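Incident log, support desk, overnight shift.

02:14 A customer reports that sequence design results differ from what the structure should imply. Their input is reproduced verbatim below. On-call engineer (initials T.W.) acknowledged and began investigating.
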């Protein structure tokens, strides 16, 4: 009988159940790091769900580095010990959805590091990409239109210029929810968006002149209003 879907601790109940079953399978079969899981078809039959649901659960575990899918070969357990694997899966199963405040805190932390690295490591191509993102934001804002997406793309361009793939990946992973929450809480109101143009320009100038200390100072100044707004909601 198929499981009804509802959200529990940040995961759909069906996805949570499938991940729990995969964990049980790994333990009962004593599968070792590097060993192959049963096929999606066999897992779907065993758990009595669709192959699409199995695929989603596997992708979730893969995003945390616990499984690795190889085209034409199958899905394999990562090179982690049993204790670490079980502990991480347990935490994933009980991981709540990030709230607005935690997303803001995480974003600010990541961007302070990203902008310092971008100031030091950026290439001419990176700078051109950042300046174009700034121009897109400026144009959209001055036209009176909502520019949340252009704002986030500007910051993602900086993360890309940091040349730190892990930071960039983390920024990309939280951006969709940030866009949703900004629109939900009406964070980037017109007056804030207009003042942010000059703040963005100051950030770009610090990156252009390869001044990481000034870049960090400008990004902190840029986020001061957002940080205050976050703790008023």
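02:41 Re-run completed on a clean worker. Output:
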């Amino acid at each position: 009988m198929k499981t009804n879907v509802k959200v529990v601790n940040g995961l759909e109940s069906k996805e949570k159940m499938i991940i729990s079953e995969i964990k049980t399978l790994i333990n009962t079969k004593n599968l070792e790091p590097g060993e192959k899981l049963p096929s999606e078809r066999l897992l779907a039959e065993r758990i009595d769900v669709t192959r699409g649901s199995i695929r989603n659960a596997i992708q979730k575990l893969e995003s945390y580095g616990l499984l690795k899918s190889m085209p034409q070969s199958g899905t394999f357990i990562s090179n982690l010990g049993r204790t670490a694997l079980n502990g991480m899966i347990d935490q994933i199963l009980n991981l709540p959805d990030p709230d607005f405040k935690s997303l803001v805190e995480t974003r600010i932390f990541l961007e302070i590091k990203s902008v310092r690295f971008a100031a030091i490591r950026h290439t001419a191509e990176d700078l051109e990409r950042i300046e174009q993102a700034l121009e897109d934001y400026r144009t959209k804002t001055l036209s009176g239109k909502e520019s949340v997406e252009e704002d986030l793309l500007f910051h993602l361009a900086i993360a890309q210029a940091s040349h730190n793939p892990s930071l960039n990946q983390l920024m990309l992973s939280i951006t969709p929810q940030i866009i949703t929450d900004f629109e939900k809480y009406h964070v980037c109101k017109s007056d804030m968006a207009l003042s942010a143009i000059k703040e963005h320009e100051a950030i770009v100038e610090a990156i252009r002149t390869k001044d990481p200390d000034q870049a960090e100072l400008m990004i902190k100044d840029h986020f001061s209003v957002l940080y205050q707004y976050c703790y008023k909601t």
